[in-house]
Amino acid sequence: MSKLHSRSSSSDASTPRSAPVAKVLVVDDDQAMAHVVMGHIRSHGMEAFVATNSSELAEALRRREPDILLLDLMLKHEDGLDLLRALRKESDIPVIIMSGHRRDEIDRVVGLELGADDYLPKPFGLHELTARIRAVLRRHITSKMAAARGAGEGRVRFDAWEFDLQARTVGRTGAPAIALTKGEYALLRAFVDAPGRPLSREHLMRATRLHEDVFDRSIDVQILRLRRKLEQDPREPTLIVTQRGAGYVFTPSVEHAR
């Protein structure tokens, strides 16, 4: 797959009088579906354009600098999950997965593992689509703002770990740092901000800005991923402990350092 580029910040050099129009890239080789989706998106004041394969996707990312992707998983000659996997190596652009041909539960879990921001099974309502686009864009902007605030922060120590808030990594002394995904970072931030307190799944969903109706078990998946990175034995966790009926508890003491 051609090299993918994240959106450049050079377009922010001048400040327009009104908010910039969101650019939506539809990755779908079903021309009829793409035409309907793009028409609806444009009717709601956003720009929309299409890519039908990985080459067109890479070109559109470079030339169009979209704000969000709508990605169909079942392209005729390529797997949408492979495109998402390659994209996430290069960019954190928000992605909404669209699919009606696979098992929904598998799509949700794999899509989340690969960094999807939302999931919309086909057939879907067009008004719901635009609502989800706007919701994902809001969460992405909020996440960027939080990351900017975190850039002025330092490190958090717990157990034998050091959590670098700016680099979004965790590591032990003398060992290579381990990168965290956006979801893992947000989840660990929620835990270190409230050590020793039971945090419900609903609280953690709000903290990580996930839709309960989209990724119903997504918090459990994120917890499992985080345990695999932090726990000596993820099957017998001691740092992130399940408290039946209450949620999850982050057990170690936390020390904030600049």
TrEMBL record:
It comes from the Bacteria. InterPro entries: CheY-like_superfamily (IPR011006), OmpR/PhoB-type_DNA-bd (IPR001867), Sig_transdc_resp-reg_C-effctor (IPR016032), Sig_transdc_resp-reg_receiver (IPR001789), WalR-like (IPR039420), WH-like_DNA-bd_sf (IPR036388). It is found in: Cytoplasm. The keyword DNA-binding applies. Residues 153-252 form the OmpR/PhoB-type domain. This is VirG. It comes from Xanthomonas oryzae pv. oryzae (strain PXO99A). Keywords: Cytoplasm, DNA-binding, Phosphoprotein, Transcription, Transcription regulation, Two-component regulatory system. Residues 153-252 bind DNA. Its main location: cytoplasm. The modification 4-aspartylphosphate is found at D72.
